[in-house]
Amino acid sequence: MFTKILIANRGEIACRVAATAARMAIRTVAVYSDADAGAKHVQACDEAVHIGGSAPKDSYLRWEKIIEVAKATGAQAIHPGYGFLSENEDFARACAKAGLVFIGPPPSAIKDMGLKAESKQLMERAGVPLVPGYHGANQDPVLLQAEADRIGDPVLIKASAGGGGKGMRAVDKSEDFASALASCKREAINSFGDDAVLIEKYVQRPRHIEIQVFGDTQGNYVYLFERDCSVQRRHQKVLEEAPAPGMTPEMRAQMGLAAVAAARAVNYVGAGTVEFIVEQRDGGEMNFFFMEMNTRLQVEHPVTEAITGQDLVEWQLRVASGEPLPLMQDQLKIHGHAIEARICAENPDNNFLPATGSLHVYGLPACVTFERADAGVRVDSGVREGDTISPFYDSMVAKLIVHGSSREEALARLDTALAQTHIVGLNTNVQFLRHVTTSPSFAKANLDTALIPREADVLFNQEKVGLGLAAAALVARTLVDEQALAQRRDASGWIDPWAQRDNWRSHGPSVRSFAMQFHEQPHTVQLTAVHDGDALLRVDGDEAVLRYQALANGALDVAWGTQRAACHIYKKGDVAHVFAAQGATQIIAIDALAHAGDGQVEGGRLTAPMPGKVVSFAVKAGDAVKKGQPLAVMEAMKMEHTIAAPADGTVAEVLFAPGDQVTEGSELLRMEVAA
Ligand code: ADP
Ligand code: ADP
Ligand code: MG
What we know:
Elements lengths: L3 E4 L3 H13 L3 E7 L6 H5 L2 E6 L10 H11 L3 E3 L9 H9 L3 E2 L4 H8 L1 H10 L7 E2 L6 H11 L3 E5 L8 E4 L5 H16 L4 E5 L5 E9 L5 E13 L2 E7 L6 H17 L4 E11 L5 E9 L6 H8 L3 H9 L16 E8 L1 E2 L5 E2 L2 E2 L2 E3 L13 E5 L6 E2 L6 E9 L2 H13 L2 E3 L5 H9 L1 H4 L7 H4 L1 H4 L7 H20 L23 E9 L2 E9 L5 E5 L2 E9 L5 E5 L2 E10 L2 E6 L2 E8 L14 E3 L4 E6 L6 E2 L4 E7 L2 E6 L4 E6 L6 E2 L4 E7 L2
Parallel strand pairs: 1-2, 1-4, 2-3, 4-5
Antiparallel strand pairs: 6-9, 7-8, 7-9, 10-11, 10-13, 11-12, 12-15, 13-14, 15-22, 16-17, 18-21, 19-23, 20-22, 24-25, 24-31, 25-26, 26-27, 27-28, 28-29, 29-30, 30-31, 32-39, 33-35, 33-38, 34-37, 35-36, 37-39
Helix pairs in contact: 4-5, 12-13
């Protein structure tokens, strides 16, 4: 076995490989780009070497440099992860030439499976069923049109060098073929530098079912069963599960043997995935056709690990070091059901537009890592709270993998785990994934690649936490925070009695108003409290008793009228992010206490709304300011509060310096309000 390996990747897969290596007492070398200098994978490895700029071509794709680093650090092998160099035949060859083991298949197998058209010709000879289509070398547009017409509508044009869902065009009618072909070729030349295409029959109601295969250097092959990856958006996987619902033992064996035949035909070694497209006929009959082979470890390998109890990275390392496969076919069994959800930084309600930003809050479900996934929840992630999702790399933040004794149990566990995933700072698909999980089609395993468009009505623009509960949660959270602040002793142990907000008044109930914004609409929220009694919360026209209680896990149990939920509320600036079992939402507080509202500019004075620390001033004396313009930032309760100009005017004087501690009501700056 190796004693040291280099991991030529980043993010969750680099961390994933490092974890297995550590368990096997193999030392690891990380490589990193400028953007990743402080990344989790750098810390996950024993050593780390900087290899260049943030763009992949300046770092993770610089294979000469990576080989040089491997040699200099004494690594014996390179694990390429997925993406980047993992399916680069030249890199695999260069590793061998440099005396390093490439943890993956032989370069010839990468080449044979690298192009969709050529690999299909090979598979045809190996007797693996193919989608009816054309995958010849002749690329004459007239011939391609004739082939498309022969196959019959609808057809799919695919870039032979394509991957990651790119370079595909579905064509419904013969007369649209020519323009789709031209656009597919343009995308193919731009993305893959090769505009060769193939044409396939567009399978109706298709399912994507793939088989995990493994080969060793002694010529043994096994299949580790299937994964159903039918839930896709833009031909990219969203949810993956194993085993595939509805799979019969006979069909599993047929597909497994076909996948092994495919691997054997290219003398495959290591982990690979043979992807099939499955046609669903009325009456339940299913026909499978070879689509492509991915010659690497796949993103969704954890579902296979969950149902087989095997560590596929360990298998890769053993096979690469020359050992035989750890288990043979009859020793492999399926246990229960596993589902993976890909958590991505994107906005599903805006056409899945990728999002970037920093992970202000990154709260994960109670979980264990893959080594001890016995609790049924595993998270593979390459980021930590505070990290940034940059535009340089893909938008996957984490993978959430659940395992249960049945599909129903796994589904329930998935929804709970997603509800416990709290991400604040950028848009993610977490709530969307919950909607997919609970959609009728997914719940009933009515799977095909059109599931997302078919269920669009229940997937997009869903709001499960409404204004009332969101406002109640925010008010409860504000009251709890104020109470905590008031109880804070100063250095001498003194609790400021004037900071108490216990609704005490010498006569009559206290009424407090909050201005809030929900879905860009303003709302008035009023809290009427009686000392030692109930608090009534009015949200627009509805009034009900508000009760709340802090729970041990940091949540607040919030009850308002008939609504009740355990809520986690995170504030980022003015925005409160509310997470509850039924969903998540955001509400904006324009709280007169947290902000320099209109009431607080008394004769041009601007005062601290709460005790805390001055972080910065955005203005200096003499600056002209507009109403609403940020003047200063304060920090209290580990949160930042912006003090905005209450009116147009001029800054007369700044009274503190950044870093100064101020008590509530301290005058921070003086302003002359324009007449
Ligand atoms: P899977 O999800 O089945 O593992 P994907 O096709 O989604 O496979 O690809 C996994 C990773 O490899 C992603 O990070 C994707 O961006 C990358 N990738 C796949 N094919 C290509 C390609 N041809 N060029 C660049 N990146 C690719
Ligand atoms: P990539 O290399 O981008 O992963 P694939 O050939 O694996 O390309 O196809 C990606 C996805 O496109 C499949 O998972 C499936 O959803 C869809 N697809 C591919 N071929 C067909 C087909 N012939 N008919 C219908 N859908 C297809
Ligand atoms: Mg594919």
